[in-house]
TrEMBL record:
Cofactor(s) of this protein: [4Fe-4S] cluster
Origin species: Paenibacillus catalpae
Function noted in UniProt: DNA repair enzyme that has both DNA N-glycosylase activity and AP-lyase activity. The DNA N-glycosylase activity releases various damaged pyrimidines from DNA by cleaving the N-glycosidic bond, leaving an AP (apurinic/apyrimidinic) site. The AP-lyase activity cleaves the phosphodiester bond 3' to the AP site by a beta-elimination, leaving a 3'-terminal unsaturated sugar and a product with a terminal 5'-phosphate.
EC number(s) reported in the record: 4.2.99.18
Binding site for [4Fe-4S] cluster: 189, 196, 199, 205
Protein name: Endonuclease III
Gene for this chain: nth
Amino acid sequence: MNAKQKMRHILDTLAEMFPDAHCELHHSNPFELTIAVLLSAQCTDETVNKVTVNLFQKYRRPEDYLTVPLEELEQDIRRIGLFRSKASNIQKLCRILIDKYEGEVPSRHEQLTELPGVGRKTANVVVSNAFGVPAIAVDTHVERVSKRLGMAKLDDTVLEVEKKLMKLVPREEWTLTHHRLIFFGRYHCKAQNPQCPICPLLDLCKEGKQRMKPGGQTKTKIKATKPKKANEG
């Protein structure tokens, strides 16, 4: 198989495994999604959803986040990792939305990445899920799976992984592929104890083949991307 054929095989397999893959962050509008993705940096979607169920009841508009002291907002999200810096970024972001965008989340990628706490990954999630613009956001699951299945090199940066996926995956499938790669990494090809014995893509995974040998432990090491700061979501 050439690279395109290999990618098609992977995409079709993921489609069979996770036909209903979707964004698991609870939200009802672009603003809530932006806040949720900002909070999700170095934190699980499950924890974010537990926090936002009350957060989004209390704060419905950008103006609402600016009516309370920073310390109060910090306490509202204190179960989230890096909650202090994230609370600060939320208030700064809300001020910019009010002053520059009439309280609305902008739909263009370059506008989103100028907001505090919104990096390339967050912007990709927002434009694709809130505004229907095809994008591939590379989180820890997408990065891990892409490297294990040989879609990217082990020492590729997150941006390099994104560019390679954009080249291999048809544009109209970018967003859905992003979700399916996340589901595959979150529920099947986990960082620890991946389900190699029942994996339909084992033949493409050098690490999986190594794990399946007697002795089991892989010698392949994926170079982890350095953790981002809270303002680089």
